[in-house]
Amino acid sequence: MPALQNFLSRHPFRKSLNISWKEGIAASVMQASVDEYLIPLGLFLGATPMDIGFLVAVPHLLGSFSQFLVVKAVELAGNRLRFLVRASFLQALFLLPLAIFPFFLFPSRILALIFFVTLFRILANLIATVWGGLASDYLAPEERGKYFGWRSRIIGLAGMATTVLGGILLNTFKAFSTAAGFCILFAITAGARFISSGFMSKMQDVPEQKNPEDMFTFFMFLRRFTESNFVKFVFYVASITFATTLAAPYFSVYMLRDLHFSYLIYMFIHMGAVVASLVSFPIWGRHADRIGNAKVLKATSLLIPLIPVLWLFSSNIVYLFVIEIFAGFVWGGFNLCSLNFIYDAVSPGKRMRCLGYFGFINGAATFMGAGLGGYLAERLPTLNGSRILTLFVISAALRFLSHFLLSRHFHEVRPAAQKISSVELFFSVVGIRPLLEKGRDWSILSFLRRSPWKD
After folding, report:
1. Contact call for residues 284 and 156 (beta carbons, < 8 A)
2. Overall pTM surpassing 0.90 (yes/no)
3. Nearest Cα residue to 187 out of 411, 381, 14, 30
């Protein structure tokens, strides 16, 4: 990719940007294992739907509270980079017990699993906040959409490979020792995080810009809800998060427990979302640089409620795979532009604090959604023989409500953003009526070879 190489060769933070995507590959191996196979591990250890709710909810709640300590934690470490290296190393240590638990089916194993996952999530939330502040300081606003879109597709390949290999590994070992399969998978997960920590140690630190007006409390942040565009955006995302996590942890439960899918089929269906998000990142990134992040967020949040509804109509494997392709493409745009919107809307001096407050509110929404979902999953009336399908309907309704009530209350912060309708955006991203000079760039071949700086 000569255009990318040219960009990096003259960039003042070329060393860190080059290391960043390599570190991201190792981190993606870890993240994909945890995201895709933590709930299957819980089910293997004997977790009930309520236990799964706690496994998701409690770590996210305590992880969100840790955001209030992020500024102090960086100060104690000395700088952001030193904190990232130490925290990621500790995070790898907390993953190691997950490789041992499958062999020891002791009575309190679910509580022990929740305990170590909570420690993992606390550090994950802190790392995400600090890394986001540091990485955004490497890039100018007009570079972020393209670079992060490109980086996301590279690390997404690593996540895709991990998802595939994890499913094959568990399916292979199921014949003689599922416990050994989980042990190997999570040992690799911890090792990947150790490698990630090593890469981080080679990056550059950027001194934070601190001004007296950048110091504000969480309650001062909340009081600005009626006037602050950013605070309105935070509650919009949190409402989508609450409605989504009401059902999100239970797609895995539905497939593995209710539909009795094998780990291989489970992996295959999840691959639809992984591949689609992988392809979608650079497409959404280029469009966001042209039309603004807010437009992409509002367009994708209109489609997000359709995802759980589509699960109601069939349990056919190919059908569910196609639905996951749609889900991955839509969520790819929403997740990428949520983060980029924060980078655009908040000045560098306030960024880490605002990322922390955003993380806390979003984590609290995850706790409430997953916790309520775990409670309802065993008490709702059945739909097509499953209570979880009823939960999907409720989640879809709340997602629609979040979009229609809150999406119109925040606006784009980029003054030069192009004004287009949601219909025009849809036709552009699928390549029918491209807004960009090279809009038909969503095939796998062009995805693999294209540099984000060619447009």
Report:
1. no
2. no
3. 30
